[in-house]
Design goal:
The protein is mainly β. It contains two helices and 27 strands. It starts with a strand and ends with a strand. It is an enzyme of class 5 (isomerase).
Length: 343
């Protein structure tokens, strides 16, 4: 039967941190922190699947949100502001003049309340958080629940729900960096992504508002393709981001949970399937310069060490009427699910 155990894992500025170990009947484990809701480790048959740190100190320093819950708004909001009806809300900027991933004190920096349970088929960790009215500039007291379910078939199911007492915008995601193989980079991995279009960005990585077809461009992953094949293509968008750091528009989005991506390490045969009920997914190929960040054991992170599939509403949606709206009204419940299943 699956199990959940927890143990103290140090102290963050926001309070004491616990690490929860979710184990399934196969003996495969997921480690999750109540600090930032961080997925600290996923081990399948002894192989680590995500980039992260072995101690809390790494997560408290400057690092690119390894495994964290991102909110209130995942990705970028242009000009760090948006309007609801006739009211403009000024956000805390942390990416030049823009806001990225909820601001400098987003959900990835919070201590979440935690409750665990088990069933015959899964280990469950429920994290809850109150984001107060005005938090990082966002309106409304937002009650958030993030539930992690680790199943006997090696699937990590993440369900987010939220309610508010004022109209607000919400966009939650998980920022895990996956590497399924034994190589330092994911350039040899293959990817299939069920998206016929994407949202190009400006020089500051804010969507232009256009939705463009991927056909005939380096962004086309509708058929399985090696990640590194076009990652240095002579394309202005690729050059701008130093690889892939773009939102893809999921085909035939209707709000239901369905498979949208398949990542494969051809050498080992390991696979990762991504399912989501979201309209978009940010494909990010860890485009940082070699050594800018470190990971387990203090090893320098190399460029393209991991691949992120950040399921989401589109970046800057609060300011783009042609994008799916992220508005959450009083009396409504934000509900979204993403599943990462390993094979």
């Amino acid at each position: 039967m699956p199990t959940v155990k927890n143990a103290p894992w140090g102290d963050a500025p926001a309070g004491p941190v616990q690490r929860f170990t979710l184990a399934n009947d196969r003996g495969n484990t997921v480690h999750i922190l109540n600090y930032g809701g961080v997925v600290q480790s996923i081990r399948i048959d002894g192989k680590e699947m995500v980039i992260g740190f072995d101690t809390l100190e790494g997560y408290l320093g400057k690092q690119p949100n390894y495994g964290a819950v991102i909110g209130r708004y995942a990705n970028r909001i242009g000009g760090a502001s948006f309007k609801i009806d006739d009211t403009t809300y000024e956000l805390v900027a942390n990416d030049g003049e823009h806001q990225l991933h909820g601001g400098p004190e987003g959900f990835n920096t919070k201590i979440w309340e935690a409750e665990s349970s088990t069933t015959d088929t899964e280990a469950v960790l429920q994290l809850s958080l109150l984001s107060s009215d005005g938090d990082m500039g966002f309106p409304g007291n937002l009650h958030v629940i993030c539930t992690y379910e680790w199943t006997n078939d090696d699937a990590l199911r993440i369900h987010y729900s939220a309610t508010t007492d004022k109209p607000t915008v919400v966009n939650l995601t998980n920022h895990s960096y996956f590497n399924l193989g034994n190589e330092a980079t994911v350039l040899g991995h293959t990817l299939r992504l069920d998206a016929s279009s994407y949202t190009p960005v400006s020089d500051s990585l804010i969507p232009t508002g256009d939705i463009l077809p991927v056909g005939g461009t380096p962004f086309d992953f509708r058929e399985e393709k090696v990640v590194g094949k076009d990652i240095r293509a002579d394309d202005p968008q690729i050059q701008l981001a130093g690889g892939y750091d773009h939102n893809y528009v999921i085909d035939e989005y209707d709000g239901t949970l369905r498979e949208i991506a398949l990542v494969t390490d051809p050498e080992s045969g390991r696979k990762l399937r991504c399912f989501t009920s979201e309209p978009g997914v940010q494909l990010f190929t860890t485009n940082f310069p070699d050594g800018k960040f470190s990971a387990r054991g203090g090893a320098p992170l190399v460029r393209h060490a991991g691949i992120c599939l950040e399921t989401q509403h589109f970046p800057d949606s609060p300011n783009r009427a042609n994008f799916v709206s992220p508005l959450l009204k009083v009396g409504e419940t934000y509900n979204t699910t993403t599943v990462y299943r390993f094979e």
